[in-house]
Amino acid sequence: MNPTARVFISYSHDTSEHRAFVLALANRLRDEGLDCQIDQYVPGFPPEGWQRWMETQIEQADFVLIVCTPLYLQRYRGNDPDGGRGVNFEGVVISQTLYDHYYRNTKFIPIIPVQGSLDDVPLPLKGYTTYTLPQDYTALYRLLTDQHATPAPEIGEKVALGGSPPPRFISSKENKRNLSDTMKAAYIGAIAAVAAAIIAGLLALFSPTSSISTRGDCSSVVTGDINSNLTLNCSKKD
Q: What domain range is 185 assigned to?
């Protein structure tokens, strides 16, 4: 909260009751920590004159509350030549300030009395939030004192999620290349298997522990282990 925020109230002197309404609003804002200014606080007239005083108040204020009534709108537009010129002049300053800032507005706040209407809001201010008093006083006070009712929380750390990575897109050209590499690998594996089988067969054929010898006269047969002999008797054919 900024306790030194300056607030200026721009309004028309519609009736004595309306003047009392604006005075009560200004008194409450000052009582609750805001430097609020209205013309009723000036004794007599300001030394620099009303015109310069109004211009200075609008320029130096952090917020300008614009109390919108049918008479205020009429004078804001310059359509009441017989009435007070204060609102007419303030309307020119407000419109010019908005124009100079490309209507990026953080300063001018339209206010509607409880019996007022949105139709009484000047056209350059209709695109912004309007506060109806007294029921919207708390919301208005939050704005003036920078006490937002629902501030955004701080941004936390990003959450790391598990799971498999998404499938990678494979082009048709790459797919053909992968298929060709697979066929080559299968062909080489088959050749290696055949070669291994041939080598194993040769080793088995020429191994000394698995030889078989026979004698022509069938008197004896040696088989298996060379240390064990099996003799078979053969009968001759007649």
A: 174-209
* β-bridge partners, 109: 65
Q: Which residues of 185-213 are buried (b: 16+ CB within 10 A; e: fewer)?
A: eeeeeeeeeeeeeeeeeeeeeeeeeeeee
Per-residue pLDDT of the chain (238 residues; tens, 9 = 90+): 455 799 999 999 999 999 999 999 999 999 999 999 999 999 999 999 999 999 999 999 999 999 999 999 999 998 877 766 788 889 889 999 989 988 899 999 999 999 899 999 999 999 999 999 999 999 999 999 999 999 999 999 999 998 877 777 666 666 666 656 777 777 687 788 877 878 877 777 776 654 444 444 544 444 444 444 444 444 444 4
**Residue 226 falls inside a structural domain:** no
In a domain, 191, yes or no: yes
pTM of the model: 0.65
Q: Is residue 72 part of a domain?
A: yes
CA distance 129 to 8: 18
116 and 187 in a single domain? The answer is no
Q: Are residues 130 and 188 in the same domain?
A: no
